[in-house]
Structure formats: structure tokens, C-alpha cells
Amino acid sequence: MKRKASAMWRGDLKSGRGTISTESTILRDAQYGFTTRFENGPGTNPEELIGAAHAGCFSMALSAELQKAGFTAESIATSATVNFENHPQTSWTVTAIHLETRAKIPGIKAEQFATIAAGAKAGCPISRLLKADITLDAQLV
Q1: Residue 56, helix vs strand vs coil
Q2: Best exposed site among 51, 58, 63, 141 by fewest CB in 10 Å?
């Protein structure tokens, strides 16, 4: 299976503009540029998209691991905070991702949930892809 996304960029770094699109068309010519990446301009940026992908992937992985253990989630809400820092030696780098999930799982004990959540973090395909330090705060609600 292959998934495809594309980006088009025109111009220099600071005044140029780009668009990002996905094969599914959920994103079609979504704008991004210097201000959306390094300031707070309208549009998206690669780091935000990585965070969304990671949060979605982890939520699905957690659901799968819970199912293997005999549980069904009422809800799993996950956010991913992507640290994007400028280091003198390497320039701009994603240095860490912090996953925060709040799950409602009937009948599960906190210790069992923590073990399953840690396994989902390790097994999530996006977690395995990324080389940044990936942390997790998983709590039952």
C-alpha cells in the first residue's frame, strides 16, 4: 500500500508561498509558507501535519492494542505537540513529540492501560518512522 501527498512551492523562503495536497483530497492546495511555519500566519505547516498524523496513528494503534486485550474504547482523544527548534549545528529540527491521550475504556485498570498505551506508542507506524524523542502522557478519564 502506498499513500501520496504533494507540495508545490514558488519563490524564495521568506516571501514565497506553497500549497500541500493529499491524494484523498482532504487537503487540496492547502496554503503554507514562511509565516505559517515560523510565525502564526494562516495556513498549515509540515510540523502541524506530522503532529496530526502522529495523533491519528497513535489513537488507532491504541484502539487495536486495546481490542487485542479484550477492551473497546468509548473514546480516545490524542494531541501531539511537535517541538520545532533552531539549533546552531543542525538548523531547524523537530526535536521531540509529546503525545497526550485521554481515553475512556470501560473495565480497564490503570496499570493495564499504561502498559497497553506504551505498547501502542512503540508500535504505531508513525512512532516507528520518526527519530525524534517521542513521549506519551496517557490517562483514563
Answers
A1: helix
A2: 141
Q: What is the number of other CB atoms lying within 10 angstroms of the CB of residue 20?
A: 20
Q: With contact defined as beta carbons under 8 Å apart, do 63 and 70 qualify? A: no
The per-residue DSSP string of 124-139 comes to: -HHHHH--SEEEEEEE
Distance CA 120, CA 71 (A): 14
Please list, in sequence order, all residues whose beta carbon lies within 8 angstroms of the beta carbon of residue 85, skipping any fewer than 6 positions away.
92, 93, 95
Between CA 73 and CA 70 the distance in angstroms is 10
- Residue 1: pLDDT above 90? no
Judge if pTM exceeds 0.90.
no
